[in-house]
Amino acid sequence: MRTPAPAEPPAADGRPAEADGAAADAGPGPGPERTRGLSRVWRSVRRSAGRSAWLRGRAGLAGLVAAAIAAGAGLAAALDGSAPDGRSLAVDTTACGTPAAQLPAGPLAFSVTDRARAAFVSVYLTDPDKGDVYAEIPWLAPRHTLPLTTTLNGGHYAFRCVFSDGTVRTSRRITVTGTTSTAVAGYQPLPDLDMTAPVNAYRRWISAALPTLLAAARTLDADTARNDLRAARADWLTAHLDYERLGAAYNAFGDFDDAIDGTAEGHPQGVDSPDWTGFFRIEYGLWHGQAASRLRPLTRRLVSDVSSLIRDFPSEDVDPGDLPLRAHEILENALQFQLTGADDYGSGTALATVDANIQGTRQVLDVLEPLIRPRDPVLLAVIDQDLSRVDADVTAFRTPDGTWTPLRRISADRRQRIDGDMGELLEQLSAVPNLLAPRTSA
Asked: Where would I find the Imelysin-like domain in this sequence (predicted)?
């Protein structure tokens, strides 16, 4: 299980913020942490023309890039402050701009400038009666300008400005006349407390799964104790997969995650480092001819670490923001570290780990389903279809006796198919963190 590096905020259409290429200067401001940088990899995967057209037409969220950083180049030049169609909106703590009173249905583009002296602002284009949001700028710095674009059907709308000093302003109503076939579907803002039930449900699932992991670790330890390395190799996989299914709880595991599932990366002596412990260290020994007497201290330590984790877990917090992020990151990590073979220390079981990661992702989506479905029911259906496709790709290489074909024995075209299907799945999963980002003030 990999602990992601800090993550970059997704755009308002659910894409990673870097997806649009050109960077808009949003100014400094707090934001979610950046995930491991796989978006360029999976975004480059070729997708069918029909599916691409569907993706372009799907309108669960409005298209907006809040901020992006060009690799190695710093911030791009600030926007010039003018909207393509002349719709400029200046907001401050006294008013949320003065938009046109009447606009035609169809694509609409605004240029929003925060004229406040010090207060940052979040800007939402809303239905003032239902509360649905149709476009947003998550974070705009004082004296900076960003575009806000969307496509609207006829109806009544208004801008809502939420400033960092607590001030909230709403613009006058905008009447949009006419109809369009490409209008975005408004989404329901998510209050912070709505994530409480999914987090509690996920904690219960983790608590119920940990004893199974401990039992599997004890079985592995018993194998090395009696010098049965053949059984140890089979039971190592069972125990490791039990752990890999727990992918969304990495942050709540603290230092235990490194001790139980850390790789040799970062250890001064690499695979020879005496302080390297856990599943990957045991894997290296089991598949590199190390004696049971050398492995026994490691399997005994594994049992101890899992036992300590079980005692510690009730006192640890699961960050509500972790669940939506991990709905995407679990399999993003699988693409980067499993499907490339980077985390294979000899067992050749990368595809088994991916299969466990798929199961872990499904569990996260199960607890998030009550929040996702009312906001984007089509997204859930597409994700389920894509998950099933990738799962079929992977389990095709599980043999009847329960062993798995190593990546090195799989043809290039089959690996490309797995990578391509995983890329499509990740594109859909990347919408979940933004869809369920807390928008209490929206």
From this structure: 200-431
